[in-house]
C-alpha cells in the first residue's frame, strides 16, 4: 500500500472542532529506566489509555511536561510536521524544570513520526481547514513516594484531529490581576502541567465576563507584558509602510515556536523585529496585537482591558493586515503550499511506521515486562492491545463516537 494513505472519506473535516473523540488508531509509548539511562524502543498502543502507578510522581507531585505540534497534508499528499526538532528541544527544556531526564531529539522525532505515520489517514485533506494536533507527553510513571527521581519515566505521543477556524473575529482580552501565572525564577518557561491547571478558574471567570483570552503581566512588578495563558504575545506597530513586531523576552514565558516563526517571516518581509521588555503602557501604541500558538495559530486581539486601572486599548473588530499577512504565510508554509526556505517542515515517511522495531520492542531483553502491563502485539495496523486492563478499546471507540 502506498504511503501515506488517503484521508478518511467518512469524516467531515471542516466541523471537527478540537474535542477528543478517541477515534484515532492509538498512541506511542516509550519508557526510560533510571538504571539503564535509556529510552525504550517505541511501542504503538491501540487505545488512548496509559497504565500509570497511582503513587507515581506524575499524579502526586506534578512531575510532567508536554508539547503541542501539528501535521498537515501537502498538495502532493505528503505529510508534513512543523519544526519538530524545535519542539523536541523545548520538551527537554520543560522536562528539566520538573526533574525529568531529557528526551534525545532523535528519539522524540522517531516517536512523533511513528504516532503520525500510524494515524496517517487522520491527517486531513490538504484543502480542508483541519489539522492533526500532536501531543507528546513525558512524566514520572513508577510508584515512588520520596521526593527523589523515580525508577521509571514514560514518554507518550498522542494525536488528535481537529479544525481551527481561520478568519476568526478578533477577541477581547483581559489582564489577570488576582493571580500570578509564573514567579520570577520559577517554572513559567516550561510547558509543565502545574502552570496550566491553576489558570483554568481565571480563564473560566474571564469567559463569563466576555473575555475569550487572558493576559499575564510579570509577577514581580506587574508592569510588563508576559504572555497569554496558552499563547505568546506579539505587538505590531506600523509607521506608513514600515512594520515593527515586538515580542516579550521574559524568562518566565514559554518560548513560542509560532512567535519565533512569525519573527523570521517578518524579517524575510523586511520588517523590524524587537525582542525586549514590553511595558504595559506601551500596549496603547500598538496597531495590532496577536496571540500566537500552535493550537490557535494567529488569533487577533480586538482589545486589551486591565480591570484595576480601567484602561482598555482597542485594536479593531477586523483582523489587521499584518496579522493576515503573517497568518497566510504561516499557513502556506505548514501546508507545503510554498517552498520552505527555512527548513521548518519535515516529511513523515513509510519507514516511520516502525513496524519491525515495534515488534522488537516486545522482546523481554529490551524491557523488563514484569514491571509493565502485559501487552500483546499484532503485527498488523491494529498494533498493540492491552490485555490486562479493564479497558476495551472497541467499547471506548463506540462511546467516543456516540
Ligand atoms: C504552548 C504555549 C505557547 C505557544 O507556543 P507554540 O510553540 O507557539 O505553540 C505560548 N505560551 C504558553 C503558555 C504555551 O503553553
From TrEMBL:
Species for this entry: Lophium mytilinum
Endoplasmic reticulum is among the record's keywords: no
Modified residues (N6-(pyridoxal phosphate)lysine): 191
UniProt pathway annotation: Secondary metabolite biosynthesis
Family: Belongs to the class-IV pyridoxal-phosphate-dependent aminotransferase family.
Key words of the record: Aminotransferase, Pyridoxal phosphate, Transferase
Name this polypeptide is given: Branched-chain amino acid aminotransferase II
Region (Disordered): 380-402
The organism's taxonomic lineage, starting at the top: Eukaryota, Fungi, Dikarya, Ascomycota, Pezizomycotina
Amino acid at each position: 500500500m502506498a504511503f501515506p494513505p488517503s484521508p478518511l472519506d467518512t469524516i467531515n473535516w471542516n466541523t471537527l472542532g478540537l474535542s477528543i473523540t478517541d477515534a484515532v488508531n492509538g498512541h506511542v509509548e516509550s519508557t526510560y529506566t533510571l538504571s539503564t539511562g535509556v529510552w525504550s524502543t517505541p511501542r504503538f498502543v491501540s487505545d488512548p489509555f496509559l497504565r500509570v502507578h497511582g503513587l507515581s510522581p506524575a499524579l502526586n507531585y506534578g512531575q510532567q511536561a508536554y508539547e503541542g505540534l501539528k501535521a498537515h497534508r501537502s498538495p502532493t499528499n505528503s505529510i508534513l510536521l512543523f519544526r519538530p526538532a524545535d519542539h523536541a528541544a523545548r520538551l527537554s527544556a520543560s522536562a528539566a524544570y520538573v526533574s525529568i531526564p531529557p528526551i534525545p531529539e532523535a528519539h522524540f522525532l522517531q516517536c512523533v513520526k511513528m504516532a503520525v505515520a500510524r494515524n496517517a489517514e487522520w491527517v486531513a485533506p490538504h484543502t480542508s481547514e483541519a489539522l492533526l494536533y500532536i501531543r507528546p507527553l513525558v512524566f514520572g510513571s513508577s510508584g515512588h513516594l520520596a521526593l527523589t527521581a523515580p525508577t521509571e519515566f514514560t514518554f507518550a505521543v498522542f494525536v488528535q484531529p481537529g479544525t481551527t477556524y481561520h478568519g476568526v473575529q478578533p477577541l477581547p482580552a483581559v489582564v489577570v490581576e488576582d493571580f500570578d501565572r509564573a514567579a520570577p525564577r520559577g517554572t513559567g518557561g516550561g510547558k509543565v502541567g502545574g502552570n496550566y491547571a491553576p489558570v483554568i478558574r481565571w480563564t473560566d471567570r474571564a469567559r463569563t465576563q466576555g473575555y475569550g483570552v487572558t493576559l499575564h503581566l510579570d509577577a514581580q512588578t506587574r508592569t510588563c507584558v508576559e504572555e497569554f495563558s496558552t499563547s505568546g504575545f506579539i505587538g505590531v506597530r506600523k509607521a506608513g509602510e514600515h512594520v515593527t513586531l515586538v515580542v516579550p523576552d521574559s524568562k518566565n514565558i514559554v518560548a513560542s515556536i509560532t512567535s519565533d516563526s512569525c519573527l523570521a517571516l517578518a524579517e524575510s518581509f523586511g520588517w523590524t523585529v524587537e525582542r525586549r521588555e514590553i511595558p504595559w503602557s506601551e500596549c496603547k501604541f500598538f496597531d495590532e496585537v496577536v496571540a500566537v500558538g500552535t493550537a490557535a495559530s494567529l488569533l487577533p486581539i480586538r482589545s486589551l482591558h486591565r480591570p484595576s486601572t480601567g484602561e482598555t486599548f482597542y485594536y479593531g473588530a477586523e483582523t489587521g493586515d499584518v496579522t493576515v499577512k503573517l497568518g497566510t504565510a504561516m499557513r502556506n508554509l505548514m501546508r507545503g503550499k510554498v517552498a520552505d526556505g527555512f527548513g521548518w517542515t519535515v516529511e513523515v515517511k513509510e519507514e516511520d511506521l516502525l513496524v519491525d522495531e515495534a515488534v522488537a520492542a516486545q522482546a523481554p531483553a529490551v524491557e523488563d515486562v514484569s514491571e509493565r502491563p502485559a501487552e500483546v502485539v499484532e503485527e498488523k495496523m491494529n498494533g498493540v492491545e492491552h490485555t490486562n486492563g479493564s479497558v476495551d478499546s472497541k467499547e471506548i471507540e463506540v462511546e467516543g463516537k456516540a
